[in-house]
Write a structure and sequence with these properties.
globular; three-stranded antiparallel beta sheet; Cytochrome Bc1 Complex, Chain D, domain 2
């Protein structure tokens, strides 16, 4: 007796989970890729993208850095970033300390959140988290902090709130989600260096952000990349700037303690 349409609908999630587990167990390990968990995502780039990233004349990120320099000095609607902070390099220590808790301790703010808030205070009210100027400024600031290690720590006066957000991010990293019933840990801890379709799985350290993704043909923040992961496992995608995304970002940056920031960078 053949299953009915309703029967197939009930079986679909189970079949999807079995197929996803089968795809993970059948991933091919290539000896040419790193397998150590404390490895930058840049180590997993194919030679062609490594060469493009190293060529300042051809690297598309250079255009975003130029745009970031212009935005840093823009006084069209009010004080510029430079008027308040001087050179972008003056904020390099702050870059590796985000996300930070808001003054009321209710939410985490990452670097793009902070850039957006500053721009709105200076009269640039049409921006959003993935605005080109916001991403260009993020790229400029991340470049200024290259070589520094992540130093995301709990502020003395907000220890309890910070720890609660970190624990939430830790739980999200290990929580199975979506129709594929996978958690971050299944790929980025248990299958590092293995091939999944056209990609090689990295440890998912955040040091390369913001990224110029070839498939996007533009820059994107860690917020956008995390949302894409939700889509990849067929889970309900959180809205831009969701608290869960900031909690997960906090966990990833604490997990990356000791690793250096080496973005902005290119991805496939």
């Amino acid at each position: 007796m053949k299953p009915s349409v309703a029967g197939w609908a009930k079986l679909a999630p189970i079949l999807g989970m079995l197929l996803s587990l089968l795809s993970l167990t059948c991933l091919a390990q290539s000896a040419s890729w790193p397998t150590h968990s404390q490895t930058s995502g840049n180590a997993f780039l194919p030679p062609s993208l490594k060469a493009l990233q190293a060529d300042a004349g051809s690297n598309p990120i250079s255009l975003w850095l130029d745009r970031g320099e212009l935005a840093w000095r823009d006084t069209s609607t009010g004080p510029s970033c430079a008027n308040c902070h001087g050179a972008a390099r003056s904020l390099r220590e702050a870059v590796v300390q985000h996300p930070r808790l808001s003054a009321d301790g209710q939410r985490l703010l990452n670097l793009e959140d902070q850039i957006l808030a500053c721009r709105k205070r200076s009269g640039k009210t049409n921006d959003h988290l993935e605005s080109e100027e916001v991403l260009a400024l993020s790229a400029l600031l991340h470049q200024s902090a290259q070589g520094l290690s992540w130093q995301v720590q709990a502020p003395p006066a907000q220890q309890a709130q910070w720890q609660a957000r970190l624990m939430q991010g830790t739980a999200l990293y290990t929580q199975r989600i979506g129709r594929m019933n996978l958690a971050c840990v299944h790929c980025h801890d248990q299958n590092i260096g293995k091939q999944m379709r056209a990609d090689v799985i990295s440890p998912a350290h955040p040091g390369g952000f913001p990224i110029y993704r070839m498939s996007w043909q533009g820059m994107g923040s860690i917020d956008r990349r995390l949302r894409a992961c939700y889509s990849g496992v067929q889970a309900v995608m959180p809205p831009v700037g969701d608290l869960a995304l900031r909690d997960l970002e906090l966990f990833l940056k604490v997990r990356a303690s000791g690793l250096v920031l080496d973005g902005p960078s290119i991805r496939r």
